[in-house]
Amino acid sequence: MNDSNDRPRQLRFSVFELDLRTAELRKHGLKVKLHRQPFQVLAMLLERPGELVTRQEIREKLWPGDTFIDFEHSVNSSIKKLRQALGDDPATPRFVETLPRQGYRFIAPVEGGALPELPLPTNGTKAIQESPLRRHWVVAVAGGLIVAVVAVLFAFNVAGLRQRLERHALPVPKIESIAVLPFENLSHDPEQEYLADGMTEELITNLGKISALRVISRTSVMRYKGTTRPLPEIAQELNVDAVIEGTVLRSGGRLRITANLLHAPTDRHLWAESYERDLRDVLALQSEVAQAIAEEIRVKSTPQERARITSPPPVDPEAYEAYMKGLAAMSNFGRLDIAITYFQRAIEKDPNYAMAYAGLADAYSELGNNELVSPQESYPKAEAAALRALAIDGTLADAHRMLGWCKFRFDWDWSGAESEYRRALELNPSSAGAHCGYGKFLSFLGRMDEARAEIKRGGELDPLGSPPFWLMGDVFYLSRQYDEAIEQLRKTIKVFHLVEPDAGMHNLLGRSYKGKGMFNEAIAEHEKAVALLPETPLYLGMLGNVYGLAGKKARALKVLDQLNKQSKRKYVAPYDIALVYIGLGDKDQAFAWLEKAYQAHSNDMSNLKQDPMFDPLRSDARFQDLLRRMNFPP
Question: Any long-range contacts for 466-471 (C-beta under 8 Å, 24+ apart)?
């Protein structure tokens, strides 16, 4: 088709006709004004209807390499002018469909040139009286013409014929791993961004229920939000076989999404579909997309897994909107209170909305885990919300994960916590959060080989997220392998510092230096942690601990004074104060505050069995009594 002599001189679609000889576009026979570059783009699209025409191809065709222009602006302008000429809407296209970060595709049927007509007999009698030889000749000619017509239709991909035939002719590549890239918000209204992000997250969750498929976590794929990098390059970084991308557009109470599935190594388009539903049916829509993708890639799934991604009941649109806004707020550490408000609003609108309860459990748990409120205030609420979610829908992996976290960090119900984590992973094998949480749980019980295996799996699912990497450093630290811990954490900080400076990483690196007796380096790292989060009592307590061990008693006492002042205006865990007394070598005060921490169920008491910080107390009978009362398994 590259030779202009082989191309039809006229291409028709809908009420339009494109004349390649005169470079004219006509509508109902009347000429439509279209400048040279938009015309050339249209010609490229019509030459390959139903196929992707990349932005790079458009650039190479229209603007040679030595042309100095703002290419991005120019191609966007050409597409806009083309759509204006065709009266096409980018949100609900009839002709030109945008494939985000890739290019464009012509989606209407296209006819090329005049099709030959079969000669018809002048009357039926003559046709009946024709000789057998004549009849065979007519049949042969007719058959040949049909073949020719099909060939023309295939060549021009009319109604997507070529694409459909090729999909059936070519074997479906083996797909065992997939990444759902952030869906694009076509409204470009920042207030609607939560819908696109929420659609991305829910599709990840639904596909993650299939054990034969490795699905990359939200944390990693969100790194590519708004990127224009080539899909094969992204797929290589994420180590996946296939990529899903799409768009979301809300119009009143309706939601329209498009989804595209591509084989990553070859950039081969495997499947695409558009959906439009009432917002009440959005959960069913998410399940439908996940089922369609699973069927397309022919991934093996059990009857139980298929049942988990079947259509859930409708949800109140206002409840869904509030839930999505809650998820968006959860991604911002300082907005947990706002997230809770949204989740509660969703529950008020729809009391049987299980996912809203799971979101509420997550938010309350984060409040306690980060010591923003007392454990007695946060964890029982988190546990109650998780249990309510599971009473409505026992297949919610995130609710089981949150219940496991509460049993681990607050209840000290070790066997119950393990059961919940195992159930969460059974329901969603691709949950990086469940693998990492379970790995942390195992490390606190001293089951280090199992912990490493779970965290490693979490890293495969979340290759661009920091938790799997610093958690592996934590396992080294808890194993007293300080050199390995230091190496792991220094690498992690180097990689992630520009993306998300993390006080927790510096704190853990400081503890690892302290384990080796490198107090100057330890102090420097703990001071960095406090500088990043100066209002976090735990990091102050850790700093006071290392000051005491380094013989800097005055500084340690100053930290104690800071913690006491903080306790008059916010929650300070007794555990944090106990750390300073351990560093100062005051065992009686250390045990007095650890007893208060035990009574308060300070969440970091779950560290007690394995953390090297408590090595100075381990030989004391009071310490062994604490471990016994916390029901630690032997």
Answer: 466/492, 466/495, 466/496, 466/499, 466/500, 466/502, 466/505, 467/219, 467/432, 467/436, 468/432, 468/436, 469/495, 469/496, 470/502, 470/504, 470/505, 470/508, 471/436, 471/439, 471/440, 471/443
- Which tokens belong to 472? 């592996």
Using CA atoms, how far residue 344 sits from 318, 357, 371, in Å, is 12, 8, 21
Q: What is the pLDDT of residue 78?
A: 83
Which of 115-119, 224-228, 231-235, 564-568 has the highest average model confidence (pLDDT)? 564-568
Q: What is the pLDDT of residue 4?
A: 42
Is the Cβ–Cβ distance between 230 and 221 less than 8 Å? no
Lowest mean pLDDT among 152-161, 248-257, 351-360: 152-161
Q: Which amino acid, 393?
A: D
CB contact burial 37-67 (16+ within 10 A = b; e otherwise):
bbbbbbbbbbbbbbbbbebeebbeebeeeee
Q: State how beta strands 177-180 and 242-251 pair.
A: parallel
Cα–Cα distances in Å, from 232 out to 45, 189, 263?
23, 29, 9
Backbone angles phi, psi at 16, to 5 degrees: -105, 155
- On the question of pLDDT at 157 being above 70, the answer is no
Q: pTM of this prediction? A: 0.75
Nearest-Å Rg of the Cα atoms of the chain is 32
Given CA atoms 19, 25, 30, 31 in this order, what sign does their dihedral have?
negative
Could you give the count of Cα atoms lying within 13 Å of 317 in the half-sphere of its Cβ?
11
Whether the CB-CB separation of 318 and 326 falls below 8 Å is answered with no
Whether 510 and 526 have beta carbons less than 8 Å apart is answered as yes
Helix/strand/coil for 523:
helix
For the chain, what is the mean pLDDT? 85
Percent of the chain with pLDDT over 70: 85
The sign of the CA dihedral 323, 328, 329, 330 is positive
Between 264 and 113, the more confident residue is 264
Count of residues for the chain? 634
pLDDT given for residue 535 in this prediction: 86
Residue type (1 letter), 284:
A
Go through 243-270 and write b for each residue having 16 or more CB atoms within 10 A of its CB, e for each that does not: bbbbbbbbeeeebbbbbbbbbbeeeebb
> Do residues 59 and 75 touch, judged by C-beta distance below 8 A?
yes
